[in-house]
Design goal:
By secondary structure, this protein is mainly alpha-helical. 68% of the residues lie in helices and 3% in strands. Strand 2 (96-101) and strand 3 (106-107) form a beta hairpin. Helix 2 (14-34) runs antiparallel to helix 3, helix 3 (43-60) runs parallel beside helix 13 and helix 5 packs antiparallel against helix 12. The two termini are 29 Å apart. The model has no long low-confidence stretch (mean pLDDT 85).
């Protein structure tokens, strides 16, 4: 007779975990090819980080949900202080000041703020009586919660992360029951303010990215070079791709950042449309699982937090794919679990750890 698995192991969402492992392993294959059939400098460090962060997600899944609920505001406050410290003490890389150098690790507080803003906004609306949700006092505190870190991140400058913080918090506000007319009004206000922001808020390179998005052929060898080469790589892959290790755009260095922001183009060139469909479908199934966790949740905080975390993963994937296909300006959002780099990988796996903790609480409640 086969021994029964421990409840802690048997209760894990293994289908979701296998999908995440498949995405991560496929990403390592792409990075191995991008480095010309070498584990260094990208595939090996990425694989080690993936294993460490995945184990961390499993540990988080065992933490009682009430701990995250109580820690929502303190974590938000600590990260807000860290964002202020970045302005004065932050390490500069690639012309941006986004990291705190702690000696043993370079921490990017803005990445963790994507999660903290979801938890803090969900906690705020859980504390608010449902009857108050449609009143002004239900809107301005959440707007301040979202706006403060978004402004600090914009100063780094990091437009993509600032937009994701606003999107994650805004999603929770919408699901909490804030009236749709206020979102429409906010969208109209943004549309009116956009020209002023374009002229006086965005940096020169950010304005150039917007102009290239509107007219990709205006500077094909300058600012538009990234997106032009990305489209060539994706289109040349066809249905089946050129084959593993046979990509030309990345191997001949025509495609800049082919291992980070534009890794999907590197993958699509070698694995074709079928490879792209696999990655997109796997992410959609993981996001669908996260949404279902929120649907099954029993508390208001758990419902809003699960939906916000699933939406954060969706925004990562959707913005990156739109960016590399020329459907959105280049804003520096990587494809999580596939692009080289630990920040997005850490954020997404922490999100999945939190979702697993909510899923575990759901199953315990159902048993009782």
């Amino acid at each position: 007779m086969r021994p029964a698995l421990p409840d802690a192991v048997a209760g894990l969402p293994w289908r979701m975990l296998l999908l995440v492992a498949a995405i991560g392993c496929f990403g390592l294959v792409v990075l191995y090819s991008a480095a010309n059939a070498s584990l260094r400098p990208w595939a090996l460090p990425q694989g080690i980080r993936f294993g460490v962060f995945l184990c961390g997600a499993l540990v988080l899944s065992r933490v009682p949900l009430d701990w995250f609920r109580q820690a929502a505001f303190p974590a938000y406050g600590a990260l807000l202080i860290a964002l202020v410290l970045v302005e004065f003490l932050g390490a500069v890389r690639g012309g941006s000041q986004r990291w705190l150098d702690l000696g043993f690790i370079r921490l990017q507080p803005s990445e963790l703020m994507k999660l903290a803003i979801v938890l803090a906004t969900a906690r705020f609306y859980e504390m608010l009586p449902a009857a108050e949700t449609r009143r002004f006092q239900a809107i301005w505190p959440a707007a301040v919660l979202i706006g403060l870190p978004a402004v600090l991140v914009m100063l780094q400058p990091d437009l993509g992360t600032a937009l994701m913080i606003c999107a994650g918090g805004g999603t929770v506000m919408f699901l909490a029951g804030v009236p749709l007319r206020l979102f429409v009004g906010g969208a109209l206000a943004v549309a009116v303010a956009a020209p002023l922001a374009f002229m006086f808020v965005l940096h020169d390179y950010q304005r150039n990215r917007v102009l290239i998005f509107l007219d990709p052929e205006s500077d094909p060898l300058g600012t538009g070079y990234h997106i032009s080469q990305s489209k060539i790589a994706i289109g040349s892959g066809g249905l089946w791709g050129k084959g593993f290790l046979n990509g030309t755009q990345s191997h001949l260095d025509y495609l800049p950042e082919g291992h980070t922001d534009f890794v999907f183009a590197t993958m699509a060139e070698e694995w074709g449309l079928l490879g792209g469909i696999f990655v997109i479908a796997a992410f959609l199934l993981v996001i669908r699982w996260g949404v279902n966790v929120g649907v099954r949740a029993q508390t208001r905080f758990a419902k809003l937090a699960a939906a916000g975390l699933a939406a954060t993963i969706f925004y990562y994937v959707a913005i990156n794919l739109a960016m590399v296909m020329g459907l959105a300006p280049v804003v520096g959002i990587p494809l999580p679990l596939v692009s080289f780099g630990g920040s997005a990988q850490m954020t997404v796996l922490i999100s999945l750890g939190l979702l697993m903790a909510i899923d575990r609480a759901n199953r315990r409640t159902a048993r009782w």
